[in-house]
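Repro:
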Amino acid sequence: MTDKNINLTMLVDFYELTMAHGYFENGMEDCVGYFDLFYRRTPDRGGFAIMSGLEQLIDYLENLSFTEEDLSYLRSKEIFSENFLTYLKNFKFSSDVYAIPEGTPIFPNEPIVTVKGPMIQAQFIETVALLYINHQSLIATKANRIVRVAKGRHVIEMGSRRAQGSGGAVLGARAAYIGGTTGTSCTIAGRLYGVPTLGTMAHSWVQSFDSEYEAFLKYAKLYPNNCVLLVDTYDTLKSGMPNAIRVFKEVIDGHGYKPGAIRIDSGDAAYLAKEARKMLDEAGLESTRIIVSNSLDEYTIKDLLIQKAPIDSFGVGERLITSKTEPVFGGVYKLVAIEKDGVVIPKIKISNNPEKVTTPGFKQVYRLFDKNDDKAIADVVTLFDEVIDDSKPYIIFDPTHTWKQKEVTNFYAVKLLQPIFEKGELVYKKPTLEEIRNHVKKEIGNLWDESLRLERPHKYYVDLSEKLWTLKDELLKKQAIKA
């Protein structure tokens, strides 16, 4: 779906409607619930993920309303009362929403979105909240891994035709740009979101002319300031490169235009790039760039650069837009508290799988930074009304192995969860896409290099405050006694 104005209110799992009906019929429509959205493990065993998708969640919440067609469909199911359908007809989103801003590095098991509001509302938005945050955080994270490995070389996202549907292509291009790509081949992403759009030629262009030389010549005359010639349609070194060099000399080089480029889309990219570079340099075309595509990801790019392949830019398609090596982000949305008579009652989910035990209560996330170099030390999840006093030492400890402790000094603490909606009214100024990209660069610059490794990165600490740890421990013990 690419239309930003389409009504997605019914993009829910059906059980969200049956539960909403249940809450309503049991007089719980005004019962306040607290839900956390978080993820349990970073894809590709990475050191961190990048928060993305918040803008689309905001747009959804601002336009949340049921049409007559929606209500007619629900009536046809013959399980919902007319009073409940009337409630939906008059539905107005009135919850509070807190979120970590887009472009911020995020870590497992800390809330990245918190929703406080009537149970019907807070439960109802689960699917879309997970859909947008899961998908775009996955692609932004994958893109950033690729961009970091490219070490300053341009990375172009060009995977639309292999994406999972139009939404995957368009919002994937947006998320990839947040992650650091130079631009996208997806034109509509440029129109809707301002992502720079880029493109060259297809093999079909070369095949459509009587000769490869003629195809290159026509293209160069048409786009002399952006002349990228695809040299592997027939034979990269014996045909493509000689014809490209000839055209560059006749039309581009020395004629007042920007230097051109070649693109290699098949074969041994390292070998072909090295040979092509030799041929270009020998022809006096030292400024002509080399672009490589063809099933690239961070691992293949890393290998190409280890082999010292003289590549200037990478075109990355399916393995980015689908995050092929690990295509699921795994965010979840869990009830952590309810409110009765103004009192917040923490709730905990217990599982036979320890990693699925939730952290109860209405919470805030603090990031602690070293005052000497602004490097992030750790994140601390606290109860919402707790304040970390950074004017004095603070003890952090491992929530599982509690004897592992550290006294943090000379630091400053920043709240990560920001108010987005208050009683259904947007109170957050949405940043531009360029502002989000700049935020990514700044915040990643505050992480230790050890956390940026592709493989076996240093584990970043996400700890619980003593009050929150005690609350969780008490609820676990209480449930154990009941069992």
